[in-house]
Amino acid sequence: MAFAEHEVLVPRDALDVYAFLVDGMNLPKWRTGIRSISLASGAAQAKGAVYRQTVLGRSGWPVSADFEITEARPGAEVRYQVIAGQNRPSGGYYLSTEPAGTRVRFALECQPKGLLSLMNTGIQRAMKAEVVQLERLKDLLAVASAA
Length: 147
What we know:
Elements: E1 2-10, H1 14-22, E2 34-41, E3 50-56, E4 62-64, E5 67-73, E6 77-82, E7 90-98, E8 101-110, H2 120-132, H3 134-146
Antiparallel strand pairs: 1-8, 2-3, 3-4, 3-5, 5-6, 6-7, 7-8
């Protein structure tokens, strides 16, 4: 199994951070590699929402990576499961309030199947690159807070 996580401290209230993260349409604002995203079904910003997403694959070609929000607890967590594409990681954003703002942990895990399991090291590296983008979220929300 491949696993990666990263944490940042965002100088914003946990409910503000949660509201930004639970809206899948905000992903392209801080995660590189997303080519398109739209709400496919369900209520936006809620458990059960399905987002149709296309990302840039390792080969440079667009890859389907639709996902469903599987848990949405205001101010605490947003979890999701990728439901399309070769790799189908699950992940989440876990929030905790601190005096200086909100600690955000982004964690991903993937259990590659079949021949993909032979590429575990590459999958691990790609997942680490994804979670580290949390630094971009911190910068984006810190600027919005200062404005």
